[in-house]
Design brief:
Number of helices: 2
Shape: globular
Order of helices and strands: EEEEEEHEEEHE
Structural class: mainly beta
């Protein structure tokens, strides 16, 4: 299962850009947040699952949610790529009409619904985790952010 944002990588290549003086300026490092989400189903008990929220400054308009291989029937990581703006808008109001749909669920939860030919997965995240991730993505692309070690958190 995968959804792909139409967002070609900007400046794909070496990860550095040349300046007028002949020196290279490093690009900001990717952001990754390891989180625990919950599968929403008819079962009254939810199932906690690990997920990784990823962002690469080379693709500033896209974010990724990755579920580990052990959760996939194919035995491979299940990566969903979609617009960062969709995630941000979904924190405030229902949004999305394609493979990924997002809406707030109460004051502290957000639901992300993934559609594929194999079916639909409905996953709930803590909204604070998604807000923190978005802040980190904007910080990674802020002017003057420069290169730094990859930001990785575990929630």
């Amino acid at each position: 299962m995968s959804a792909t944002a139409e967002n070609p990588p900007a400046g794909a290549g070496s990860g550095a850009t040349a300046t007028g003086s002949g020196t290279a300026t490093a690009v900001a490092a990717p952001v990754e947040e390891r989180v625990t989400a919950r599968v929403i189903s008819d079962d009254p008990l939810y199932r906690a699952i690990p997920a990784a929220l990823r962002f690469t400054p080379a693709e500033p308009l896209a974010v990724r949610i990755v579920f580990p291989a052990e959760l996939s029937p194919e035995g491979t990581d299940n990566e969903w790529v979609f617009p960062r703006a969709l995630l941000e808008a979904g924190l405030l109001a229902p949004t999305g009409t394609g493979d990924v749909r997002i809406w707030p669920c109460g004051r502290v939860q957000v639901v992300v619904e993934f559609h594929s030919p194999e079916g639909v997965a409905v996953i709930q995240f803590d909204s604070a985790v998604l807000r923190r991730f978005l802040r980190l993505t904007y910080a990674a692309t802020a002017p003057g952010s420069g290169a730094r070690p990859a930001a990785t958190r575990t929630a």
